[in-house]
Design brief:
Helices cover 54% and strands 7% of the residues. The chain has helices at residues 11-19, 25-32, 42-62; strands at 2-4, 9-10. The chain is elongated. It binds FE2/S2 (inorganic) cluster. FE2/S2 (inorganic) cluster binds next to loops.
Length: 70
Protein backbone atom coordinates (compact mmCIF):
# COMPACT_ATOMS: atom_id res chain seq x y z
CA UNK A 1 0.00 0.00 0.00
CA UNK A 2 1.26 3.45 -0.88
CA UNK A 3 1.90 5.71 2.09
CA UNK A 4 3.46 8.61 0.20
CA UNK A 5 1.65 8.91 -3.11
CA UNK A 6 3.66 11.93 -4.28
CA UNK A 7 6.93 10.00 -4.05
CA UNK A 8 5.52 6.49 -4.68
CA UNK A 9 6.76 5.13 -1.36
CA UNK A 10 5.01 2.04 -0.03
CA UNK A 11 4.55 0.77 3.50
CA UNK A 12 6.81 -2.16 2.63
CA UNK A 13 9.61 0.22 1.58
CA UNK A 14 9.23 2.19 4.81
CA UNK A 15 9.40 -0.98 6.90
CA UNK A 16 12.51 -2.08 5.01
CA UNK A 17 14.12 1.36 5.56
CA UNK A 18 13.42 1.03 9.29
CA UNK A 19 15.22 -2.32 9.30
CA UNK A 20 18.19 -0.60 7.66
CA UNK A 21 18.34 2.12 10.32
CA UNK A 22 15.73 4.77 9.46
CA UNK A 23 14.23 4.65 12.94
CA UNK A 24 12.61 8.08 12.93
CA UNK A 25 10.38 10.07 10.61
CA UNK A 26 13.21 12.58 10.09
CA UNK A 27 15.59 9.86 8.88
CA UNK A 28 12.90 8.41 6.64
CA UNK A 29 12.18 11.85 5.22
CA UNK A 30 15.87 12.36 4.45
CA UNK A 31 16.40 8.87 3.03
CA UNK A 32 13.25 8.23 0.95
CA UNK A 33 11.88 11.73 0.45
CA UNK A 34 8.63 10.91 2.24
CA UNK A 35 6.63 14.05 2.97
CA UNK A 36 8.64 16.32 0.68
CA UNK A 37 5.76 17.34 -1.56
CA UNK A 38 2.20 17.83 -0.22
CA UNK A 39 3.03 16.49 3.24
CA UNK A 40 -0.26 14.62 3.68
CA UNK A 41 1.60 11.35 4.34
CA UNK A 42 3.61 12.54 7.34
CA UNK A 43 1.27 11.22 9.98
CA UNK A 44 0.88 7.78 8.38
CA UNK A 45 4.59 7.48 7.60
CA UNK A 46 5.49 8.35 11.19
CA UNK A 47 2.98 5.75 12.42
CA UNK A 48 4.52 3.03 10.21
CA UNK A 49 8.01 3.88 11.49
CA UNK A 50 6.92 3.94 15.13
CA UNK A 51 5.00 0.66 14.89
CA UNK A 52 7.76 -1.19 13.06
CA UNK A 53 10.44 0.03 15.47
CA UNK A 54 8.26 -1.27 18.32
CA UNK A 55 7.81 -4.62 16.55
CA UNK A 56 11.56 -4.98 16.00
CA UNK A 57 12.31 -4.06 19.60
CA UNK A 58 9.86 -6.72 20.77
CA UNK A 59 11.61 -9.31 18.58
CA UNK A 60 14.99 -8.18 19.91
CA UNK A 61 13.89 -8.49 23.51
CA UNK A 62 12.42 -11.98 23.04
CA UNK A 63 15.29 -13.41 20.97
CA UNK A 64 18.60 -13.12 22.76
CA UNK A 65 20.68 -14.23 19.79
CA UNK A 66 18.95 -11.98 17.25
CA UNK A 67 19.91 -8.32 17.52
CA UNK A 68 18.88 -5.54 15.19
CA UNK A 69 20.66 -2.20 15.41
CA UNK A 70 17.90 -0.12 17.01
S1 LIG B 1 1.77 12.00 -0.12
FE1 LIG B 1 3.76 12.18 0.68
S2 LIG B 1 4.41 14.17 0.13
FE2 LIG B 1 2.43 13.97 -0.75
Amino acid sequence: MYICICNAVTEREIRHAVELGCTSYKKLHDELGVGTCCGKCKKDAARVVKNHVAELRAVNSSCGDFNLAL
